[in-house]
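tool=predict chain=A
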Amino acid sequence: MTLAQWFIFFLIVQVVHFIGTWKIYEAANRKRWEAAVPVYNAIVLMKIINRPTWWTILLFIPIVNLIMFPVVWVETLRSFGKNTTLDTILGIATFGLYVMYVNYTQPLNHIPNRSLESNSKGADTISSLLFAIVVATIVHTYVMQPFQIPTSSLEKTLLVGDFLFVSKFHYGARVPMTTVAAPMVHDTIPVINTKSYLNKPQLPYLRFPGFEKVEKNDIVVFNWPVDTVYKFFDRSTRKADKPIDKKSNYVKRCVGTPGDKFQIKDGVIFVNDQKLILPERARPQFSYTVTTNGTPLNPDYVIRDLKVTDAVYQTAPNTYLFSSLPDDEAARLKSNPIITGVTKNISHEAEPSVFPQNNNGWNKDNFGPIVIPQAGKTVPLTAENLPLYKRIITVYEGNDLKVSGSEIKINGQIANSYTFKQNYYWMMGDNRHNSEDSRYWGFVPEDHIVGKPVFIWMSLDSHGSGLSKIRWERLFTTVGGDGQPYSYFKFFLIGLAAYFGITFFMNKKKQA
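tool=predict ok
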């Protein structure tokens, strides 16, 4: 839905609200017209039902309002003596239309100072639970979201089994575009494995101001632009047409920002003709072929000394393939007396699967140059460069594109150039030969950006068992920053012990 369509829908809702509640307003000694004024009518209604004015804000927060509307319907009924279980069920089951029925058919005796105390322990538990869900949904949507690392594309920096907190406010919290969805889950409701949302209606893209912009070398969580899978690891023929904010969450390193000239030469990234200098914590990896003098490689040496946990294959006598190995570890391999050769496997053959899939000779190690699209910038359109921008023009920016020979038409008009409506980014994994990233599906639109990982609160090693399954050195470490990661877990434990100690002391003192 466009902004104009949403405005019309909002006006229709206001008309329905006025028709269904004006007698209720009058019965509460308010003016009839107060039921017709948008936003103000909600403020007045909060006074009628004896609830705080700030509840009005919750009615306009997507997802949260799905919880608040039923609450307000029930509270309105109770403010006029409709307290039975049947009244509550009818109020919710009819999507508030039961309030309209009461408005016209029942005696309206307003209870201005009714008690807000729950009549039963069960009702009190439900109220507390609803409040907790509302608060958690606001935090999850606009402040901080938990996230688990599912793949090894950022291995050595972020590990499979890391559990992160992703900040929504660093780049600016994105208002949910999917308006009807279960709170605090992504695309699937756990346990019952059912889709958690409705595709329509959709809000236009809107993002609150952030504290910073996406910069080169930032690790970023974003919605996978080409996602059509029902489940993250399920690439079967079963497809799903997902809204932007319900596409699978990916995490990669931003290596190109809007307006940058981007190129990869023999596995090395160049931005604006300068080699991209990665932060100290980043450890890019490549596949290597290693040969020995006939002595087999000791698996304990590979795992314990080289810290290599990814696959190592013996491809021929005395020959091994390391699927992902950092350059410094490759250098250490060379110093082993049984090693006779260490070769980085740099591709020079064309890979048709590489973006933009038009057989231009590019591959994962030699790519470009390209210029990353920037909002407001105009590029000439030709048959040669159209594959780079085709998905942007049609899918991300919603235009109709038709090509006939050398003639390009956008929205029915002949086009020799195109002006981008939003910014785009280039995202890649540090595990360069084991990462499905922008090299294969192209640019990441700004409206797909979710947030910035800031904190690892838990890290589990699938190869461990018991307490050794926990990577203790990674607990409570920051994702970014200078130098090597440092765990603040001991300070957390000290703070937790202090909190419980002080609480115990205060309770004892109060009892005395």
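The mean pLDDT is 86. The chain has three domains: 3-141, 146-259+425-512, 285-344.
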